[in-house]
Structures are given as C-alpha cells and as structure tokens.
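Onboarding guide, step 5: your first structure request.
Type a short instruction followed by the sequence, for example:

Predict the 3D structure of this protein.
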Amino acid sequence: MANIKSAKKRVLVAERNHLKNVAFKSSIKSALKKVLELAKTKDEDAMKAALSKAYQLCDKAVSKGILHKNTASRKKSRLTLAAKKLLAE
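The system replies with structure tokens like these:
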C-alpha cells in the first residue's frame, strides 16, 4: 500500500472502477449468451430485441472506455454471424 494520501486514494478508486468494469463486462457476456439461447429456440422476434440490447451494451462499454471499439465491433459481428447460423439450422 502506498504511503502518500493521494496514492492511497488512487488505489481505492482503481479498485472501485475495476469492480464496475468487471460487472459491466459480465452483463455483456450474459446478453450475448441470451441472444444465442433465443436463436437456438428459433424465437426470432425476441432474439432481435436481445440482439439490439447486446449491441447497446457493447456500444455503451466503448463510450465508457471499458472495451476498445474494435473489440466491441468484433463481439457484435461474431454474435450476429452465430445467431444467423443458429436460426438457419
């Protein structure tokens, strides 16, 4: 642990931000899984709504600095391809 008061505060702030980032990434993963589950059940309307929500979460993560823009783009692209593939089966 740091000795300087401002450094101690930065450690606490960094830990708090880390927990928020982990929670947000977890919500993104849950949204992606939900889209794939709905695609497996062939519920196209609900899947499109969940896909829109997943896109929204990815874009929000980019704006907050949690994900890099290319990472979010890759996640969205792979999710869309996987969902279409499951619907086609």
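Each response can be followed by summary notes, for example: DSSP finds three helices and no strands in the chain.
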